[in-house]
Amino acid sequence: MDELITYAENTWCPGCGNFGILTAFKKAVKKLEDEGRGKKDLVITAGIGCHGKIFDYLKLSGIYSIHGRSMATAQGIKIANPGLRVVAFAGDGDAFGEGIAHMIFAAKRNSDITVILHDNGVYGLTTGQYAPTSVKGFKGPSTPRGSIEEPLNPLALMLEARATFVARGYVGKLDHLVDVITKAIRHQGFSFVDIFQPCVTFNNTYKRYNEKVEILNHIPADYDEAMSIAKMEDKLPVGVIYRVEKPVFHKELYGDFNPVLKKLSKEKRIAEIKKMLSAL
Amino acid sequence: MDELITYAENTWCPGCGNFGILTAFKKAVKKLEDEGRGKKDLVITAGIGCHGKIFDYLKLSGIYSIHGRSMATAQGIKIANPGLRVVAFAGDGDAFGEGIAHMIFAAKRNSDITVILHDNGVYGLTTGQYAPTSVKGFKGPSTPRGSIEEPLNPLALMLEARATFVARGYVGKLDHLVDVITKAIRHQGFSFVDIFQPCVTFNNTYKRYNEKVEILNHIPADYDEAMSIAKMEDKLPVGVIYRVEKPVFHKELYGDFNPVLKKLSKEKRIAEIKKMLSAL
Amino acid sequence: MTGEVFTFLIGGKAGEGVKKAGSVAARLFASMGREVFEMDDYQSLIRGGHNFSVISTASRKITSHYTRANLIVAMDKRSYELHKQDLGEDGIMLYDSEIKGDLKGLGIPLRAEAKKYPNPDLRLGLGAVTVLAVAVGMDKESLKKLIQSEYPRDLDINIAYATTIYDMASPEIGGKFRLNNSDKKRVIYSGNEIIALGAAAGGLDIYYAYPMTPSSSLMHTLAAQGEKLGIIVVHPENEIAVVNMAIGSIFAGAKSMVGSSGGGFALMQEGFSLAGMLEAPLLCCLASRPGPSTGVPTYTAQGDLNFAIHQGHGEFPRIVASPGCIEEAFYLTSEMLDLVWRFQTPGILLTEKHLTESSMTLDIHINKAEHFQPLMHYGGEYKRYLDSKDGIAPLLFPPSDELIKWNSYEHDETGITTENPELIAKMQEKRNRKKISLLNHLKNKHTVNIYGERGPLIFTYGSTTMSVREALRAGDIDATVVQPIYLEPLPVWELEKYKDKELIVVEQSCAGQFALLLKEKAELNPGSVIKKYDGRPFDPVELAIEIKKAVSNG
Amino acid sequence: MTGEVFTFLIGGKAGEGVKKAGSVAARLFASMGREVFEMDDYQSLIRGGHNFSVISTASRKITSHYTRANLIVAMDKRSYELHKQDLGEDGIMLYDSEIKGDLKGLGIPLRAEAKKYPNPDLRLGLGAVTVLAVAVGMDKESLKKLIQSEYPRDLDINIAYATTIYDMASPEIGGKFRLNNSDKKRVIYSGNEIIALGAAAGGLDIYYAYPMTPSSSLMHTLAAQGEKLGIIVVHPENEIAVVNMAIGSIFAGAKSMVGSSGGGFALMQEGFSLAGMLEAPLLCCLASRPGPSTGVPTYTAQGDLNFAIHQGHGEFPRIVASPGCIEEAFYLTSEMLDLVWRFQTPGILLTEKHLTESSMTLDIHINKAEHFQPLMHYGGEYKRYLDSKDGIAPLLFPPSDELIKWNSYEHDETGITTENPELIAKMQEKRNRKKISLLNHLKNKHTVNIYGERGPLIFTYGSTTMSVREALRAGDIDATVVQPIYLEPLPVWELEKYKDKELIVVEQSCAGQFALLLKEKAELNPGSVIKKYDGRPFDPVELAIEIKKAVSNG
Ligand SMILES: Cc1ncc(C[n+]2csc(CCOP(=O)(O)OP(=O)(O)O)c2C)c(N)n1
Ligand SMILES: Cc1ncc(C[n+]2csc(CCOP(=O)(O)OP(=O)(O)O)c2C)c(N)n1
Ligand code: SF4
Ligand code: SF4
Ligand SMILES: [Mg+2]
Ligand SMILES: [Mg+2]
After folding, report:
1. Which of B41, D103, D338, D529 is an S-S bond match for D515, by CB 3.0 to 4.6 Å?
2. Count of domains forming chain C
């Protein structure tokens, strides 16, 4: 598996849930390769945060984007060359704070990308401020007396925004996580994987998740069931929560065209312009 | 009622739904005044778009903000002086395109402001491009072959984001609209009114709404009923769809303090700083 | 020299076909083989208020509309009142006969006749075009052809209506203004339309934008014409998505452009800086309107010059150029696409409402458009940020067996994040070196336009150049106009020769940003600065007077 | 002169208490009545990697850390390897005895002893502080007191652990570096801490921010201390909310400030321009790090100068000032609050990581802080945008019976939208006039710091001033340091006298933006520019050498 790793020094805290995501993702890439979906066509983007460091560690092409924008960047890549499979890594602050608009619209338009959410309920890299997914009362340096906001529910929001593939995983259930990621990447359309990723330094949730996480043994029958699973609180089911096939954005936009690979020849283009320029 | 109107020339298209919103809002202000909630404490903000022009027409203090930010501006006003009641006018492009993050977080933190959505399903002022609430297939100058995105559902999104007051009105049902706006402003916490506002020039929906809009004769029992009403498509119920009491943001932030009216005296402040500066 | 210029003005409420009538009038003149300049003045509203279009035409080159009109058609009272002062000597004021009051000129029952058909508002503009046709002596047959191509909806009604108006107006004004014809047939395009075509010629693949006046019509043009040209247009949720999507597309190998006005651009700054770090060839079209903030959306200004030059935090080479006329906008757009790809750094085509939304007769030589083939990596291990001598590393697009990493953090040559001091310094230098490469390249390029050979020196840039050039014609002034096309880097090498000269600067800014730029960067000495900052472009006659004043003071 | 400086360096992995130990060491020196400068070097990671803190102390004023250290404590191999070159003559290298290899210096069983207690990682920093205490000859009792106040958690364990280390180290290094004491007790604050207090002194009511290094600790300080000071801190969803909420709060009468670094600021530009149009007194604290884009988040640079000066589209007065030392940051923050409220226009306190996150002993005279009472409207009809002579209209806050309209569109005096050309021009002029009022005001203010009276002229600004001043001491150089506090408007009237002089510029930028600014705006002539752009602040000894070189070349 080492051919998926660069020379960059790994600087995640020992015990960080991100290691699990890295491992699971690499396994998923392998699995996809075995199916004939080569890693050559796979490109990645990442936001800024502890999660983003996965960009440096993975020997895959792509863009280390800016905070909150990895899913916008990813969509741009897909639009230019739909032959690429694009995976955007994002933090919870990244995707549901700074970049929430892009998440909602990526889902709404069924952009054919995969978003992997490193959901640690905290702004890790900036030293532990509360995040949009933090529980009310969370103490961080910007909220020393406890945060006063209720958390957002990423799964429910993505369902509401019309995502066509919504799943959840937990780094404490690695094989299952590999499976979920693999399915997400295989999905045609917008796929979203919310991964419970304990931050041992600022929000150590291993205990809570180990108690509450349960593997779903079926794909929910419909949207309503998916929504109710997304909103469970006593138990935290992981697995594919919703999946539906719908036309994907780039096909709706231009059918089988490919802006990079099927460019109009310079000659044809110039001929068209000439036509326009001669018409009065 | 003319004391609520400035000398600015009204430049909405004849027949525009915005006239109904202006009339209803003025009536609501009157009603609230009769209840003893004087218009002196009422300040308004607006985004940029046809809707925003209401700022110029209303003889009320406030900020004519920028595109997509009227609800952020409004929250800032409220935080500084919670004694003010703050109403943010927003367009659908404004609130659910450019400014969607602020909408979700205003709801999430239960900011005690009222957002009035001029929901015309189009970017009016910029000459008719599709909006986040436009139906799929909508033809505008940026989508001459029809928009390829499904619309967002403002009510459902606000419910999902934990808004504590969610309502819908229609300019074709004016008295009812007055009632809904009045209730929204009375509500303590984040209140959202989605107003069907036909744009006669670019998206004339009078016929559709006249056929489908129905006045709700009860407030739904709970969140789930609210959500299912929000998602109805054959009928479009108007009225208060959801209402719940929850702690409001500014009280959670600082209790009964008021940053503007209960400022620490300069002397006390300086004494505190001196204390800090003398501690080693 | 103004004598040979003929100006037509039509004013009315928004939504009554004024703009359309203006553009048909422009085409009418162009079809006579004349040169045309059209300026549309409209408010930020959809119906009502006051719109007007001014179309000036001449048998020689013309680069501005004139305020003083030969023929005015006022569709409503407000237009009459506002524009009666604009009527030139021997000019004719026509107004809709339903307008009440003590009016001078000739009433024409434009509305009354239109009411005989359904949707009367749709006819009014045609009525105005018809009286123009009458006044310039166009025969009915030619008018009919024009209607067929320009007002094809409800064609029969239109022809019937126009015929009535024609017959009514003929006895009064028939052939009052006979204009020279010629065989030369030129196209008419607005600035935004021609920027669209220039980008297409330069190889544009994808255009991203969120609507914002006066940039929106660039998106609309590309959306309408894109299918034919193989150009994709995407209008996403906001400007931040716009710029970040564009950067994603560039990574995948697509020539991508974004467009907006000041407020939308402000939101793109973080992305602009990202492009600087990634070394992504991002082209931005910034169409200015009076600011700050929302400002005056549908009017013109040059207040964003410094803002454009200093877009984005941190240090990286930026390219900013501004076309001096609509024709130049075509070539410059393709050239800017060439440059950003050549130097792998973001650039801005800076322009103004007065250029993007005005229209002009044009003579475009498509072969003069640039179409750069990017420097590509062939064989061997790939390093995205190879520390080459000129600072430029070859490109490679996915899919590839090589590792292609673009990184917003400071990075090593491969694109992996670094915090190493030597590497940080090296990469800062690498990017800085591209500035030198860019300068060297530009030194061999045409970077400054010079019109005229003698007389006082007038410096200007952007759309104001069109006003200045016409002012010289209008005022019969012999002067030399110097227009830097590039503003960042400013081609100081071309400007050196003006160092100790007296010069006059003309710009549409209150702070005089351009004059300061010339002073600060090129050490020039702007003696007098003629400024206008009320949102309106200069009128050539008035500007000529100001220039003359400046010359005699100087 | 370096002789009297004592430098302590501690290096180790992030999460092992290095930073904390550094700050305790600084306090230790300060408690001896000495002057202290502390610089923390850390990477963008939470645990692991390599962190170090350098604390230099002297009995005279000291404005920089020194690289060359007298005492080094290396907690891990990497620290040993990286810093062995930093050991000065007669310096002592201490390292954790678990580090393997061929090491020079003295092994101390910091880790081995710590392992005898739970959570050994929590002790390591204390171990380093203890050996420092031993080396400077602090007695056990004083050390115990220090531990009580600085390491109160697990106090007994800490004292036991420290006692063991103390006893082990004493025979080897006890009292090796006896330092002069004095009675003067000074506080130590970091730049961000002191900016927080300066803002408080200036009357801040609400602070809005979204975390971003190296600005975050300003938010953290205000969040922690806000309750006592009556200051509210809000951390919303993104920077765009930050700036727009702040503007809302200002409208309601609250003195509001926002803070971020380059990337976050880029996102605030539209709001900044909005503040310009609304005439909202918005104060922004921009803490720079190396860019462009994400850049190098935890290091220092001065690459955002032009970006700061030209924030926001359109034309309106901007105020940009940069403190030259941590002490000045206190006063300048209050002064900037004063200025933005006085002139009702947005301003930027521009600073760098090297100031915001370094710490220094300070002597603050709180009465010198500014605390402006805004010009208020009393009686009569209210016009928000009254076209007054100096461009400044009185303020009025809701609730009020008067109509208070702030408008992002161009507006009339009441604040109602206008598209009228005369009004547009008038309002542009009104805002432009505030620039003149501001200039006149600043002409009576202290806007440039000058250190020294003779010798070569050195121009610098911001945190680099601290480096330059210490370099002069380190190199025993007699020179005059000129530090413009204000960068926009640049106080050219104070700089005129340097016009034809030879001068040296020192700055932390690759493009040399400050030197260009001096050249372009003040027509100065920067003969040599000493630049550093690897993310690290200057070392005074090395900088002294460069200055000497520049002087002898000049
Ligand atoms: C525009 C902008 N604002 C702020 C930052 C600073 N910043 C870096 S990472 C981060 C948040 C990280 O939180 P999250 O996305 O949850 O990632 P995590 O570190 O928890 O993996 C922030 C605010 C930035 N880089 N850019
Ligand atoms: C940052 C920014 N982007 C774009 C615009 C241009 N703009 C003005 S109004 C508008 C959209 C209007 O749509 P909506 O909010 O639905 O309002 P409506 O006109 O339909 O009432 C846009 C895109 C702007 N003013 N600012
Ligand atoms: S701070 Fe948290 S998220 Fe970041 S590396 Fe450490 S454990 Fe992981
Ligand atoms: S364009 Fe539509 S929304 Fe705007 S004023 Fe006209 S009818 Fe109303
Ligand atoms: Mg996180
Ligand atoms: Mg709308």
Report:
1. D529
2. 4
Quote the Cα angle for D84-D86-D89, to 5°.
95
Q: Which of A10, A11, A50 to mutate to test the interface with D (most CBs of D within 10 A)?
A: A11
d(CA C219, CA C258): 9
- Comparing CB atoms, the residue among D185, D197, D404 nearest residue B61 is D404
pLDDT at A25: 98
Cβ–Cβ gap B124/C46 under 8 Å: yes
Question: What is the least distance, in Å, from the CA of C545 to any CA of chain A?
Answer: 36
Q: pLDDT tens, C203-239?
A: 999 999 999 999 999 999 999 999 999 999 999 999 9
Q: What span, in angstroms and rounded, lies between the C-alpha atoms of C403 and B38?
A: 66
Looking at residue B279, its pLDDT comes to 61
Sheet-wide strand order for C283-288: C232-234, C206-209, C256-260, C283-288, C347-352, C319-321, C486-488
* Cα of C470 to nearest chain D Cα, Å: 22
Residue D379: per-residue pLDDT: 85
Does residue B18 line the site of ligand 4, with CB under 6 A?
yes
Boundary (domain end) residue, out of D405, D430, D445: D445
pLDDT tens profile B141-193: 999 999 999 999 999 999 999 999 999 999 999 999 999 999 999 999 999 99
Selecting from D270, D303, D520 the residue whose C-beta is nearest the C-beta of C315 gives: D303
The proportion of chain B whose per-residue pLDDT surpasses 90, expressed as a percent, equals: 97
Residues C280 and C202 in one domain: yes
Q: Indicate the average pLDDT of chain B.
A: 97
- Are residues D213 and D338 both part of a single domain? yes
Using a CB-CB distance cutoff of 8 angstroms, which residues of chain A are in contact with residue D223?
141-144
Q: Name the amino acid, one letter, at D352.
A: E
Cα B165 to Cα B178: distance, rounded to the nearest angstrom = 16
| Count of H-run helices and E-run strands, chain A | 11, 10
Task: Please indicate, yes or no, whether residues D15 and D48 belong to a single structural domain of this protein.
Answer: yes
Distance from C-alpha of A181 to C-alpha of A189, rounded to nearest angstrom: 14
Residue D484's domain is classified under what CATH number? 3.40.50.920
Contact D310 C306 (CB under 8 A): yes
Ligand 1 atom with least separation from CA of A94: 15
Residues of A in contact with B104 (CB under 8 A): 100, 152, 157
Give the nearest partner residue to B125 out of C44, C48, C293, using CB atoms: C44
Residue D461 lies in domain: 448-553
- Give chain D positions within 8 Å (CB) of A67: 263, 294
> Cα(B149)–Cα(A159) distance, rounded to whole angstroms?
15
pLDDT-based confidence at residue A251 (cuts at 50, 70, 90): very high
Question: pTM to 2 decimals?
Answer: 0.98
What region does C345 belong to: left with phi over 0, alpha with psi -120 to 50, or beta?
beta
Report the complex ipTM.
0.98
Q: Which ligand is nearest to the CA of A197?
A: 3
pLDDT digit string, tens, across residues B43-100: 999 999 999 999 999 999 999 999 999 999 999 999 999 999 999 999 999 999 999 9
- At D515, the pLDDT band (50, 70, 90 cuts) reads very high
CATH code: domain B18-278 is: 3.40.50.970
Same domain, C208 and C78: no
Which sequence spans correspond to the domains of chain A?
18-278
Q: Which residues on A lie below 8 Å from D291 (Cβ)?
A: none
Per-residue pLDDT band at D2 (split at 50, 70, 90):
very low
Secondary structure string (H, E, C) spanning D449-481: EEECCCCCEEECCCCHHHHHHHHHHHHCCCCEE
